[in-house]
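for the recovery benchmark. tokens below, seq after
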């Protein structure tokens, strides 16, 4: 087990214990476990241990993985829309955390509009991805829910969160944020499958006067 996975498990155990324990001796043990975990995080990240402890204790209730929503948008040529992040200078799909009182699907639609200015309609769920602690510098287990989407309106507009927006051929991208290349390739397979299905239903779309049914 990697150190971040171990610390995340200890952090979860300590916070869940403090949520449910009523025995003062048990609470004292869980507080000590959280303190040791915070100190270990602080040594690795070179941050004050009290700052780490306050951050870890900020979550209320049973500790679960963080959930994010991502959107894959392709143009007619099969290029994917990517956002150049201001925080790490890498390319990623439009994405973000799911807010309170919001479904993952709603979060994906919202994040696309906030980061690109486009209105989209989700077409299908591509996959659900799990990123363990320690990968790409994250401290927590993260779940990303990826949707294949189509543009239905809006105008491509760069937000304050990014440095650039553009459609890419996947193989041209070299600087990917975290594991977003994995997301992009999975979504591209779904996009190709939908395209082939549409062509099978309507093999000669340019030779007819009505849309395929």
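predicted aa per position
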């Amino acid at each position: 087990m990697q150190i971040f996975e171990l610390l995340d498990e200890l952090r979860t155990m300590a916070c869940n214990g403090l949520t449910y324990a009523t025995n003062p001796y048990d609470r004292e043990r869980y507080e000590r476990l959280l303190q040791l975990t915070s100190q270990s995080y602080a040594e690795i990240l070179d941050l004050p241990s009290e700052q780490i402890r306050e951050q870890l204790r900020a979550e209320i209730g049973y500790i679960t993985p963080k959930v994010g929503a991502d959107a894959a948008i392709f143009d007619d040529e099969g290029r994917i829309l990517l956002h150049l992040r201001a925080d790490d200078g890498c390319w990623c799909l439009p994405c973000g955390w799911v807010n309170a009182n919001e479904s993952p699907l709603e979060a994906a639609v919202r994040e696309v509009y906030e980061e690109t200015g486009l209105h989209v309609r989700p077409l299908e769920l591509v996959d659900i991805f799990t990123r363990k602690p320690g990968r790409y510098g994250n401290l927590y287990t993260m779940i990303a829910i990826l949707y294949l989407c189509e543009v239905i309106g809006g105008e491509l507009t760069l937000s304050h969160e990014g440095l650039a927006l553009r459609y890419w051929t996947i193989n041209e991208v070299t600087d990917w944020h975290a594991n977003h290349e994995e997301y992009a390739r999975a979504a591209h397979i779904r996009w190709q499958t939908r395209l082939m299905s549409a062509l099978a239903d309507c093999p000669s779309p340019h030779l007819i006067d009505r849309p395929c049914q």
